[in-house]
Design a protein that fits this description.
This protein is α/β, with parallel strands linked by helices and about 550 residues long. About 30% of the residues lie in helices and about 15% in strands. The protein contains 16 helices and 19 strands. Strands 3-2-1-6-5-4-17 form a seven-stranded mixed β-sheet. Strands 7-16-8-9-12 form a five-stranded parallel β-sheet, covered by helices on one side. It has a three-stranded antiparallel β-sheet with strand order 13-14-15, with no helix packed on it. Strand 13 and strand 14 form a beta hairpin. The site of ligand NA7 has 22 residues, from helix 5. Ligand NA7 binds next to helix 5. It holds the Pfam family FMO-like. This is FAD/NAD(P)-binding domain-containing protein. It comes from Daldinia eschscholtzii. Belongs to the FAD-binding monooxygenase family.
Length: about 550
């Protein structure tokens, strides 16, 4: 390629979700030549792609937004749990306030990023042939960039519409009176099937593992109502940055059996009534660590849930007598009608453990029991979560090693969940071995984004060209991430937190469960100890 066809940058940021948008804004403010590149056609990241009926964030307002006062002083949330449309409106507003569009390339899918050792630059190539040469490569691809689709026989023979939940058609297919299948009962399946059940003629939910959703207390705010008075917001964001899950609430400073039975039930009841994540993340401190504590929470959840289901078969499938896995060790969805919909005559539940799917036919789905006919099949079957965004690209570091090969051996290994040994000048947010989905999204986008800007500023000031994590630091962090997870009940559940469900993907802890304050301390201590855990390679002192 001739040099004129190559765009030279200080930094290429990949992915226009919270992390990428924040990174572009911060780096441009610091005077870097930076572009944001995105495969979709607009801002929003997960909210650009996930526009299926019922898609909404489970973090209650005002948590799920940036802390910049210029934004929150001028923005009004309409719902306590904003839906995908409101979230895309928010991104539009942010893009305008921060003047992002002039530095963003949409519809640009990056297929490879190769570290040029001679030049000390990343050579980044888009599918359409465009090439960027950039000192820094910041792939903020998030936890859900790569879809997981079942390898079912006959899947391409279906004559109706078959669609993964995150590729919901922009022209919004009419579901009225239609026969719809929803495969999967994760956070997506729970939201989607409830929304579909309100309009479809028939809905069949295919369940492999029951989710343990909590009641969502939705609120629609009037024009003069706010989730929180504006004068409290600055302190609120400061708190979020210093609390375990990146929200303004904390775990209770006591264990489950510190309380007597009556107090414990009253505590559960109060958390339940909040109608948000607090029954999961603001509860007794030992809930995710002690099997007995966990079972106590499960029992409460099970009885609340069973009380809403009329059919004993549904009770046993959706809220089993025997606890199937530790509560909260698969992502806990929120719902406001999911269980009630199973009492309707036009909603059916298939347990694919009892009657597995044999094949997809022209007309629908054949299980070992019978053939179901559908107009639409929705695959709410999840993602190659957390690492998929990185491993689906051809990313090559020193000596031509690839991220895919590296992560394929034993699972992700990173330094502080922000970079990888052997891959200089590459940093990512909300990726593997960081708090990521164990942290309110925007909080960690800001914490990690700020750290990355700080590194780049220090390098620039020192006249250095590149920085790379060392293997020792990476091993220490990987052992720590695994150690924290294995001190908890997390590994006892099968799911994407542990890398399960993707053929060939090694079972390993995908995210850091040690909480935001510990995470920040780890990032901070590597800096205060003179970037312990890093080498400065390919130095070019200018
Ligand atoms: P999840 O949480 O990975 O859920 C996927 C669901 O699909 C889950 O219930 C799976 O069952 C089910 N699944 C996957 N493959 C199959 C097959 N082959 N047959 C039947 N059922 C299947 O993805 P979501 O989209 O719901 O959520 C992703 C995250 O995005 C969410 O947690 C938020 O953090 C944002 P399983 O439990 O594996 O038995």
């Amino acid at each position: 390629l001739e040099a004129k066809h190559i765009e030279e940058l200080d930094a290429l940021v990949l992915g226009a979700g919270f992390s990428g948008v924040y990174q572009l804004k911060r780096l441009r403010d610091e005077g870097y030549k930076v572009k944001l590149v995105e495969a979709g056609s607009d801002y929003g990241g997960i909210w650009y792609w996930n526009r299926y009926p019922g898609a909404r964030v489970d973090s209650h307002a005002p948590h799920y937004q940036f802390s910049d006062p210029e934004l929150w002083q001028n923005w009004h949330w309409k719902q306590r749990f904003p839906d995908h449309k409101e979230l895309r409106e928010y991104f539009k507003f942010v893009a305008e306030k921060w003047d992002l569009r002039k530095d963003t390339y949409f519809d640009t899918y990056i297929s490879s990023a190769i570290w040029d050792e001679e030049d000390g630059k990343w050579v980044i190539t888009a599918k359409d042939g465009r090439v960027f040469k950039s000192t820094f490569f910041l792939p903020h691809t998030g936890i859900a960039a790569s879809r997981s689709i079942p390898n079912w026989k006959g899947i391409s023979s279906f004559k109706g519409l078959i669609v993964h939940s995150s590729y919901w058609p922009h022209d919004e297919p009419d579901l009225k009176g239609k026969k719809v299948a929803v495969i999967g009962t994760g956070s997506t399946g729970v939201q989607l099937s409830h929304a579909v059940s309100e309009v479809a003629g028939e809905l069949v939910v295919f369940q492999r593992t029951p989710a343990m959703p909590l009641r969502m207390r939705q609120v629609n705010y009037a024009d003069d109502e706010e989730p929180m008075p504006k004068k409290e917001m600055a302190e609120f964001f400061e708190n979020c940055h210093d609390r375990y899950w990146g929200f303004d609430f904390e775990l209770l400073p006591k264990n489950t059996f510190d309380d007597d039975e009556a107090t414990r039930q009253a505590t559960y009841e109060k958390l339940w009534e909040n109608g948000d994540f607090t029954f999961w993340l603001g509860t007794y401190s030992d809930m995710l660590f002690s099997p007995e504590a966990n079972h106590e929470a499960y029992k409460f959840w099970r009885e609340k849930t069973r009380a809403r289901l009329n059919d004993p078969r549904h009770q046993e499938l959706l809220a089993p007598t025997n606890q199937p896995y530790p509560f909260g060790c698969k992502r806990v969805p929120l719902e406001n009608g999911y269980f009630d919909m199973f009492n309707k005559p036009n909603v059916d539940l298939v347990d694919v453990n009892q009657t597995p799917v044999v094949e997809v036919t022209e007309k629908g789905i054949r299980t070992t029991e019978k053939e179901f006919e559908f107009d639409i099949i929705v695959l709410a079957t999840g993602f190659d979560a957390v690492t998929g965004g990185l491993t689906t690209m051809d990313i090559r570091g020193i000596g031509g090693q690839t991220i895919k090969d590296k992560f394929q051996k034993k699972g992700p290994s990173t330094f502080c969940g922000i970079c990888v040994a052997g891959f200089p000048n590459m940093f990512f947010s909300n990726g593997p071995q960081a708090p990521s989905a164990f942290c309110n999204g925007p909080t960690c986008s800001e914490i990690q984004g700020d750290w990355i800007v700080d590194v780049m500023n220090r390098l620039r000031k020192a006249g250095l060209n590149s920085i790379v994590a060392d293997e020792a630091g990476e091993k220490t962090w990987t052992d720590h991430v695994e150690g924290v997870a294995h001190s908890s009940l997390l590994p006892k559940a099968k799911g994407w937190y542990m890398g399960d469900g993707i053929p060939g993907k090694p079972r390993a802890t995908q995210m850091y469960l040690g909480g935001v304050p510990n995470y920040k301390a780890s990032l901070g201590s590597s800096v205060s100890r003179g970037y312990k855990g890093f080498h400065f390679e390919g130095l070019k002192v200018e």
